[in-house]
C-alpha cells in the first residue's frame, strides 16, 4: 500500500506521472495546495480508492483516472475552481456518486462512460456547464435520475446511451438547451417523457419528450 503526499508548491502533475501505479491507494494534498493541473493519464489504471481534490485544481486531463477500478469516491472542495474534465477522465472507474462543482463548464467525451457503480450525478446549483458531450454518462446502469442544468446548451449524441435504469430526466427551469444529439438516450427503456424548451432541436434521437 502506498500513500502519495503532495506539497503545496506542486502546481501540476505531469502526463502519465503515476500511470499503472497499482500500489497507490491514497493522495494527501497539503492544506494550502496550489495544484492547478492533473495531466493526461496521470493516474491511469492506478489503484486509487479515494481522492479529495483541492480547490486550486482547474484542469483534469484526458484519461487522468481512466480504469481506476478501485476509485469509488472523488470529493471536490466547496470552493473548487475546476473548469475542465478531459476526455475519458473517469471512464470505467468505480465511482459511486459524484457532485460536480458549479465551475465546471467543459466535460470531455466519455468522461464517465461505463462507470458501472455510479448511481448519482449532481451538478452544482449555479452550474456553468454548457455541453454534456458524446457518451459522457453512457452505460450507467444504476443511474435513476438526472437534472440537466439550465446552462447546458447541448446534450451530445449517445450522452446517456445504455442507461437502462434511467427513469427521470429534468431540464432545469430557464434552460437554454438548443440541441439533443442522436441517440442521446438510446436504450433508456424505462425513461418517462420529459419536457424540453420549445426551440430545442432533437436529432434522430430516441429521446422522449412531453407533447407540445
- The average pLDDT score comes to 95
Given helix and strand content, the structural type is mainly beta
What is Rg?
A: 17 Å
How far apart are the termini? Answer: 57 Å
Helix content: under 10%
- Number of helices in the DSSP assignment: 0
Strand order of the largest sheet: 2-4-6-8-10
Taken in chain order, the helices and strands follow as: EEEEEEEEEEEEEEEEE
Low-confidence regions: 205-212
- Give the CA-based shape: globular
Key attributes of the depicted protein:
single chain, 212 residues, mainly beta, five-stranded parallel beta sheet, four-stranded parallel beta sheet, 25% strand, disordered C terminus
Structural description of this entry:
The chain is built from no helices and 17 strands. The chain is an all-beta fold and 212 residues long. The chain has a five-stranded parallel β-sheet, with no helix packed on it. The relative contact order is 0.10. The C terminus is likely disordered.
Could you write a compact summary of the structure shown?
The chain is mostly beta strands and 212 residues long.
Amino acid at each position: 500500500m502506498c500513500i502519495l503526499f503532495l506539497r503545496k508548491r506542486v502546481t501540476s502533475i505531469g502526463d502519465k506521472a503515476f500511470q499503472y501505479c497499482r500500489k497507490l491507494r491514497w493522495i494527501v494534498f497539503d492544506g494550502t495546495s496550489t495544484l492547478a493541473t492533473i495531466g493526461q493519464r496521470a493516474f491511469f489504471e492506478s489503484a486509487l480508492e479515494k481522492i479529495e481534490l483541492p480547490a486550486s485544481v482547474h484542469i483534469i486531463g484526458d484519461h487522468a483516472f481512466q480504469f481506476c477500478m478501485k476509485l469509488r469516491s472523488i470529493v471536490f472542495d466547496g470552493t473548487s475552481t475546476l473548469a475542465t474534465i478531459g476526455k475519458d477522465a473517469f471512464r470505467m472507474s468505480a465511482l459511486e456518486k459524484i457532485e460536480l462543482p458549479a465551475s465546471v463548464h467543459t466535460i470531455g467525451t466519455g468522461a464517465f462512460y461505463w462507470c458501472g457503480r455510479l448511481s448519482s450525478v449532481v451538478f452544482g446549483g449555479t452550474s456553468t456547464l454548457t455541453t454534456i458531450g458524446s457518451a459522457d454518462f453512457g452505460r450507467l446502469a444504476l443511474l435513476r435520475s438526472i437534472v440537466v442544468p439550465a446552462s447546458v446548451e447541448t446534450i451530445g449524441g449517445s450522452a446517456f446511451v445504455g442507461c437502462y435504469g434511467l427513469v427521470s430526466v429534468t431540464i432545469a427551469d430557464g434552460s437554454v438547451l438548443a440541441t439533443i444529439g442522436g441517440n442521446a438516450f438510446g436504450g433508456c427503456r424505462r425513461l418517462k417523457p420529459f419536457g424540453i424548451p420549445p426551440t430545442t432541436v432533437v436529432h434522430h434521437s430516441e429521446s422522449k419528450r412531453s407533447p407540445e
